[in-house]
From TrEMBL:
Keywords: Nucleotidyltransferase, Transferase. This is diguanylate cyclase. Residues 186-318 form the GGDEF domain. Its EC number is 2.7.7.65. It comes from the Bacteria. The keyword Transport does not apply. InterPro entries: Diguanylate_Cyclase, GGDEF_dom, Nucleotide_cyclase, PAS, PAS-like_dom_sf, Rev_trsase/Diguanyl_cyclase. It holds the Pfam family GGDEF. SMART domains: GGDEF (SM00267). It catalyses: 2 GTP = 3',3'-c-di-GMP + 2 diphosphate.
Length: 318
């Protein structure tokens, strides 16, 4: 076979392979008209090469942000350098369906796109080749990993019984508030609440009813705070509420409203209804507090006093 015939055959092979490679290939001219549309693009768009060719890419896919892509394509031609667009910047350019049966996360194919200048024999660049990689598997596993990490992070901060913040998470939140106070000297208050005679509830009705009471009280507290407040379960039947932008008197007012709500609530346990009361200690963060413990200890001291003085009351630490 002559070398020209061999070259022709090689060219034919190459063209055949590019047509059927599992990667999208599109060639555009300077007017963004489609000059090449391989079988990957045909299969995923449902549009044959004969129909796509000579039409503007933006007419075929009106959902593509034409201003953004035109700028990129113009740069590829002017600077003669390739540009890459990752799925993390833009999940997809072409709105192709994903046929992955594994997950509901991806209904569209995630794509990495390379825009490459095609250099003519005379060195000029008049065409751009778009290479479209289907990276749905990579994107989906990365997304599921991030979602699993988010879930783990949430779990590590949550008390499983009450779904409130756990003690560790609350300690961190109070630490952040203490740190902010050193900068803004704002008003930050703590309300520490404890269910009265909780041991009796366990003893009289059993531990599962005790748990039910804890869950109900937690819901009541959670529904009483503002979105900027924090509440956590600090110990067995002890709760701490952190109120930013709240001075001592307002925190005491909040505590009394909550105390009355708890006392008025009826908790259905199946065959009977239970009522509980709570005692509260309130403290506002002061410049003389050297640590979160100082602030917390003052609330704890006030709570101890509320218990000693008859329970079902709130006491403010001065
Ligand atoms: N059901 C249930 N009980 C708990 C849980 N955590 C702690 N407790 C119980 O809560 C009770 C707390 O009792 P005490 O510390 O004596 O306090 P109290 O009976 O509430 O009395 P005062 O606080 O003095 O009013 C103990 O019996 C603990 O076993 C829990 O997760 N579920």
């Amino acid at each position: 076979m002559s070398s020209t015939a061999e070259d022709m055959m090689e060219l034919h092979w190459l063209f055949d392979m590019l047509q059927h490679i599992d990667v999208g290939l599109v060639v555009l001219n300077e007017k963004y008209e489609i000059k090449l549309w391989n079988s990957f693009m045909e299969n995923h768009s449902g549009m044959s090469s004969s129909i796509a060719k000579e039409r503007s890419l933006f007419e075929v896919f009106p959902s593509i942000n034409s201003e953004w892509l035109q700028r990129k394509l113009d740069n590829v031609i002017a600077l003669r350098t390739p540009i890459f667009v990752s799925w993390e910047q833009r999940p997809h350019l072409f709105p192709f369906k994903s046929y992955r049966p594994i997950t509901g996360i991806a209904d569209k194919m995630y794509q990495n796109i390379a825009l490459r200048p095609i250099t003519n024999a005379d060195g000029s660049v008049k065409y751009v080749c778009m290479v479209v990689y289907d990276v749905t598997d990579v994107a989906v596993s990365k997304e599921s990993l991030s979602s699993a990490n988010r879930k783990l992070d949430r779990l590590s901060k949550t008390d499983p019984l009450t779904q409130l913040q756990n003690r560790g998470s609350l300690d961190k939140t109070m630490g952040s508030a203490f740190h902010s106070f050193q900068i803004d000297h704002g008003s930050y208050s703590l309300v520490m609440g404890d269910i009265d005679f909780f041991k009796k509830i366990n003893d009289q009705h059993g531990h599962p009813v005790g748990d039910l009471v804890l869950k109900n009280v937690s819901k009541l507290i959670a529904s009483s705070i503002r979105s900027s407040d924090f509440v956590g379960r600090y110990g067995g039947e002890e709760f701490v509420i952190l109120l930013p932008n709240t001075d001592a008197d307002s925190a005491l007012f909040f505590s009394e409203v909550l105390r009355r709500k708890v006392a008025d609530a009826k908790i259905a346990t199946g065959n009977t209804e239970i009522s509980v009361t709570m005692s509260f200690g309130v403290s506002q963060l002061k410049r003389t507090d050297h640590s979160v413990s100082d602030w917390l200890n003052r609330a704890d001291g006030a709570l101890y006093k509320a218990k000693a003085e008859g329970r079902n009351q709130s006491i403010l630490a001065r």
